[in-house]
Design brief:
By secondary structure, the chain is an alpha/beta fold. The chain folds into 2 domains: 6-31 and 66-152 and 325-356, ATPase, nucleotide binding domain (Nucleotidyltransferase, domain 5); 160-319, ATPase, nucleotide binding domain (Nucleotidyltransferase, domain 5), CATH 3.30.420. The chain is built from 13 helices and 16 strands. It has helices spanning 39-45, 54-57, 85-105, 126-137, 148-155, 194-208, 216-226, 252-259, 263-276, 282-286, 301-309, 326-337, 340-356, and strands at 6-12, 16-21, 26-30, 33-36, 62-65, 68-69, 72-73, 114-120, 142-147, 160-167, 172-178, 188-190, 237-242, 245-250, 289-292, 317-319. The strands form 5 sheets. The protein has a 5-stranded mixed beta sheet. It has a 5-stranded mixed beta sheet with strand order 12-11-10-15-16, with helices on both faces. It binds adenosine-5'-triphosphate and magnesium ion. Magnesium ion binds next to loops.
Length: 369
């Protein structure tokens, strides 16, 4: 028996999974799995499953599964259970493999228990948290799922009188922080994010320039490079091909319109959250708003939100320093701060579940901070 432990913090997002470990390693991979389409592809790739950026480069030879959308397992919200069982099973397996692969990249020491904290959308349903735990249980000896914006705030030591807005690919999470673990009812999760911007951009770009050829991935890359929401004299010029000939296009208008689709819902969500804030804390919280997640990098978003906050008495909005690793680093910090007895308790609960083979779990952090 050893008292050594490998601690892992993971931000298991719709689009990307970032991971940080107590041995100092960290990495980021797409939350996707590629299975070779046929025997020829398998023989050429020399593997049964492909992860990481190779998925994008080899995608023609792969069946690519992104297991999550809008912050939950695909088809997880299918109330009538009409989604084909094999598709659901495939998504579950993909989620499990992504977690396993991400942890393997940390090269945890053999024979040492692995304890992990995973960030999930702020208001993920109990069922969705169970899906995450099931995806992680075969890789971790003990794992807890916590609110994603909370891990960001925890990592920044910004747990009091602040609001974190985490803008991901599938969800936007708004979370007020009062110095304790946030209650579900205080948080707001909007089922939209970068994916919705990409869809809008593809549609508007095709309308404006019907002859231009592009893929959704190219549209996303253009957004990440040029995306903006403010009223400045920005001009986004890109090369797109027309019948194989590279041609210069001005995509400013469709790009700005697409990027702006998230602004109104964020303001509306903030309005709902602000209405519930204790009036005494409100001014301090509004002057300490942090934008996190990949979408926080949209140029001008901080300024536009500050302008819109004038209607609520004004506020200050800033971006997190590291939009890729803030969640994973905060989750790791939390994992390392949690008492050893707490981890042992979770580990025992997990072992008992495995023994009784129920596959059910309700492990959830309530007040570990
Ligand atoms: N510079 C940028 N400008 C605009 N958007 C960006 C930029 N960089 C990344 N993004 C977008 O951010 C999104 C990914 O953000 P993030 O990695 O936080 O998502 P996620 O954690 O995987 O998703 P979720 O939290 O919704 O499950 C993608 O839509 C991506 O295109
Ligand atoms: Mg995220």
């Amino acid at each position: 028996m050893t008292d050594r432990v490998s601690y892992i913090g993971m931000d298991l997002g719709t689009f990307k999974t970032s991971i940080a470990a107590s041995n100092g390693r960290r990495d980021v991979i797409p939350t996707a799995v590629g299975w070779p389409k046929d025997h020829v592809a398998r023989a050429l790739l020399g593997r049964d499953v492909v992860f990481g950026d190779e998925i994008f480069h080899k995608r023609r030879a792969l069946e690519v599964i992104r297991p999550f959308e809008k912050g939950m397992l695909k088809y997880g919200g299918d109330p009538q259970g009409q989604a084909p069982a094999d598709r659901i099973a495939r998504c579950r397996e993909a989620a499990r493999l992504v977690v396993e692969y991400a942890v393997s990249l940390m090269r945890p020491e053999r024979g040492v228990p692995i304890f992990g904290v995973i960030g999930a959308p702020a208001r993920a349903s109990i069922r969705n948290k169970q899906v995450l735990i099931e995806a992680a249980e075969s890789t971790f000896d003990a794992v807890v799922v916590v609110s994603e914006p909370f891990t960001v705030a925890y990592g920044m030591n910004n747990l009091s009188d602040s609001i974190v807005i985490d803008i991901g690919a599938g969800t936007i999470d708004l979370c007020p922080l009062y110095g304790t673990y946030p209650a579900d009812a205080d948080q707001v999760t909007l089922p939209l994010g970068g994916d919705m911007i990409d869809e809008a951009f593809c549609r508007l770009l095709a309308q404006k320039h019907p002859q231009a050829q592009f893929t959704p991935q190219m549209a996303r890359e253009i957004k990440e490079k040029h995306g903006f929401v403010h009223d400045a004299n920005e001009h986004a010029q890109v090369l797109l091909s027309v019948n194989g000939v590279p041609t210069q296009y001005d995509v400013t208008d469709p790009l700005k319109a697409a990027c702006s689709v998230i602004v109104e819902p964020i303001v509306e969500g903030l309005g709902r959250l602000i209405a519930r804030l204790d009036p005494e804390y409100r001014p301090r919280m509004l002057s300490n708003i942090v934008l996190a997640g990949g979408g926080s990098q949209l140029r001008g978003l901080d300024r536009v939100l500050e302008e819109r906050l004038e209607a609520f008495g004004g506020g200050r909005v800033r971006r997190v320093g590291d939009s890729v690793f803030a969640g994973a680093a905060g989750a790791l910090k939390l994992a390392m701060a949690m008492p050893a007895e707490y981890w042992q308790e979770i580990r025992r609960a997990s072992e008992n579940r495995e023994a009784s083979d129920e596959g059910q779990s309700g492990t959830e952090l309530r007040a570990a901070a």
